[in-house]
Write a structure and sequence with these properties.
By secondary structure, the protein is α+β, with helices and mostly antiparallel strands.
């Protein structure tokens, strides 16, 4: 039950006569208002008693229909007539059409045939007398019917929804509600200003194109500088950003290098077992065919033991293979070594067979033009197949 409220107004007929109503019940959409009016019609004083049953317009605020109501009602005229009413009620005025149905033969001939009445009323009370009482559960000053977040306080400008980071985007639409960011990035910050939100940017502090996930790419080849072995020369991703031009080794040479990478060492050491010498001797023969090219050796281990120790062991094993090849006549300057330790397994370390495959020294032949570049990068990503590259 809503609190009682009162309305007073004047009926605009040939003369002005008072009317009034008391609201006794109101829900979100409907209300009941017992009412009374006194007027003089055709020389007869009339007292009308009845009630309005109103449907309320919620949220309407512009044009002809504002927050008001459409009412249906019945009145009893003390001169023995029943008044049926259709009413359009707005904050400061009211329009109504009614029809008086006689309930007794002891009335004037005019009223015996029924009477239509058109009523226009101006409301003297200021404000919006018809506006229904509004709830505001979260106490943010925004009525629940207009509040997009009625249970969480927020500013009126955001329809009552909170904005924790103050970036003008309600938290419920903000992908980063605790970090201020622009609307085009759904409220997420972009520290380097490259148009990629920090949370999706592989290099959030250095501007770069979307093609390289927000990382710089000086040669615009789609390979970020941090992963590009040739950052100043356009290349392809399959060759780590270096030019794609390459000359394949013969099938026999490829087979030799593939077989030779599984060098057997004494357990936990860099001492080559004699069973591996025959394969390494074949590598010597391949290098004699390519006297101007570089042999890259990269040591790998299984994951048994300490990671740092395995990194050192991988380097020692690559150096041991280099030492053997040098002893067979290959110039030391033609061989470059590095290690990944246990970081790049090619098989499951949970089995002895897998660990055996992971203990290896990868080999590939490349053009000497890239010797200094590879040495400066201190990185090598094994490729499937082995090749040497023509100068770009």
């Amino acid at each position: 039950m809503w609190p009682l409220s009162r309305e007073w107004g004047l009926i605009c007929l040939p003369l002005l006569w008072p009317q009034g109503a008391v609201r006794v019940l109101q829900t979100d959409r409907f209300s009941i208002l017992p009412s009374a009016r006194f007027l003089n019609f055709a020389g007869n004083n009339q007292l009308n008693l009845g009630s309005w049953f109103r449907y309320h317009f919620i949220g309407a605020s512009e044009g002809f229909v504002r927050e008001g109501s459409l009412g249906l009602g019945t009145w009893y005229d003390t001169n023995d007539a029943l008044v049926l009413l259709l009413e359009f009620n707005q904050p400061n005025y009211m329009l109504a059409v009614s029809y008086d149905v006689p309930t007794s033969n002891d009335i004037s001939s005019i009223q015996q045939n029924g009477v239509f009445e058109l009523t226009a009323a101006l409301k003297l009370r200021k404000g919006r007398p018809e506006a229904r009482p509004s709830e505001d559960r979260d106490g943010d000053g925004v009525a629940d019917e207009n509040d997009a977040c009625p249970d969480t306080p927020g500013p009126k400008a955001l329809l009552g929804c909170p904005d924790s980071d103050g970036d003008g985007i309600p938290d419920k639409f903000d992908n980063c509600p605790n970090e201020s960011g622009p609307q085009n990035l759904s409220g997420c910050p972009d520290s380097d200003g490259d148009g990629i939100a920090d949370k999706d940017d592989a290099c959030p502090d250095a501007a770069g194109p979307r093609l390289s996930n927000g990382c710089p790419d000086k040669d615009n080849d789609g390979v970020p500088d941090k992963d590009d072995l040739c950052p100043d020369v356009p290349g392809v991703a399959a060759k780590q950003g270096c030019p794609a031009s390459e000359v394949q080794l013969t099938p026999t040479e490829l087979k030799i290098l593939e077989s030779a990478k599984y060098v057997h060492f004494q357990s936990g050491t860099a001492i080559i077992e004699a069973t591996s010498y025959s394969n390494l001797d074949l590598v010597v023969e391949v290098m004699k065919v390519h006297p101007n090219d570089l042999l890259e050796l990269v040591g790998h281990t299984d994951d048994v033991g300490d990671a740092d120790a395995n990194l050192r062991l991988g380097q020692e094993r690559a150096d041991a293979v280099k030492a053997y090849l040098v002893s067979k006549g290959i110039p030391a300057s033609q061989i470059n070594t590095s290690s990944f330790g246990e970081e790049k397994p090619i098989a499951n370390n949970n089995t002895e067979e897998g660990r055996s495959l992971n203990r290896r020294v990868e080999m590939r032949i490349i053009k000497n033009k890239y010797l200094q570049l590879l040495d400066n990068q201190k990185a090598f990503v094994p490729n499937e197949g082995f090749f040497f590259k023509e100068p770009p």
